[in-house]
Amino acid sequence: MDQKIRVAIAGVGNCANSLVQGIHFYSDASDRDLSGLMHPGIGGFRPGDIEVVAAFDVDRRKVGRPLDEAIFARPNCALAFCPDLPPSGTVVQMGPVLDGIAAHMAKYPDEDAFRQAEAEPVDLVDVLRASKAEILLCYLPVGADLAVRAYAEACLKAGVALINCQPVFVASDPEWAARFAEAGLPMIGDDIKSQLGATIVHRALTRLFGDRGVRLQRTYQLNTGGNTDFLNMLEEARLSSKRESKTDSVQSQLDTPLAARDIHIGPSDYVPWQDDNKIAFIRMEGQGFGNAPVELELRLSVQDSPNSAGVVIDAVRCAKLALDEGWGGPLEAVSAYYMKHPPVQMRDTDARDRTERFIEEATRSALARKRVLAGE
After folding, report:
1. CB atoms within 10 A of CB 273
2. Which of 96, 128, 275, 367 is the most buried (most CB within 10 A)?
3. What is the pTM of this model?
4. Do 131 and 74 reside in the same domain of the chain?
5. Sheet with 329-330, side-by-side order of all strands
6. Is residue 340 assigned to a domain?
7. Which residues of 130-149 are buried (b: 16+ CB within 10 A; e: fewer)?
8. Average pLDDT, the chain
9. Count of domains observed in the chain
10. Are residues 331 and 250 in the same domain?
11. Range of the domain at 211
12. Last residue in a domain, options 279, 302, 325
């Protein structure tokens, strides 16, 4: 296909950095050079078919700058794996601040924390319409409940699909889901799963315990990192939805959920020198045959933001297929496969199978429609 997927980004942080780099990194890649992608092609769309046509942020080092420059501005610290980007033609615009900047950010150095721009917020609906954006990617900070919902409201008014990568429950909220379904707009959410991150590994091991007849008794997941996501989450009040999202994601893989005192999952601490390197520590204790004890400890080290970008590239293309088919509301299988807190939790193998069927069905429908239009 030669059609572009027109995307807007809310929050030009580290995740947006990796996504924009990835679009260009894979734009001219041959099939042999597409390692790192879950799906090189979806419905005829390649990563290079994604075009960022609008971007919003509230930081003074990003607002007013071209997107290809803004993604590398502090406090961003993601790995620069494709630094030589062409001019994007998209300038970052001032979004609504609302609860997007945690108060404790003021206590940290400029290079590590958000600094609000002295600019008036734009009209989100007007910008989305003028840019002809089809899909909005929500990359706002954890705990920015009001801001996330402001962007979701703008999507409904502008006729734009939503991919919510943050643990503010929108796609998994029945009222929001019904509104997007009524508008005929697809949504994918909530809270992105990394490609090979702590949550997906913890889920897989939890299911492995159950499938092999080992009863999981206690588990924890402790994470450290040095990006603004971890700095933002030092404010405990902003963490409730994140802890709920990550905990529910692991609990969903158990036939019988653990008691609250026996499971602890969530962000743990901010270590500035780690930058975008996230380190996860997972411990699992269980009983096997004859009640013999089983203990597992794992340390996982990943670059946090690239780890989510490949998943988002898939989600964008799935949302585009749904848009073209006129399918509104949450995409349940796609959300279950790519998100921590979807409307319906599934085992990852089931979610993957159902996502593949979704892609096949939507692709067949699109090709059939194309043949009709061509008079074949």
Report:
1. 6
2. 128
3. 0.96
4. yes
5. 92-94, 50-57, 5-10, 135-138, 161-164, 186-188, 329-330
6. yes
7. ebebbbbbbbbbbbbbebbe
8. 95
9. 2
10. no
11. 198-302
12. 302
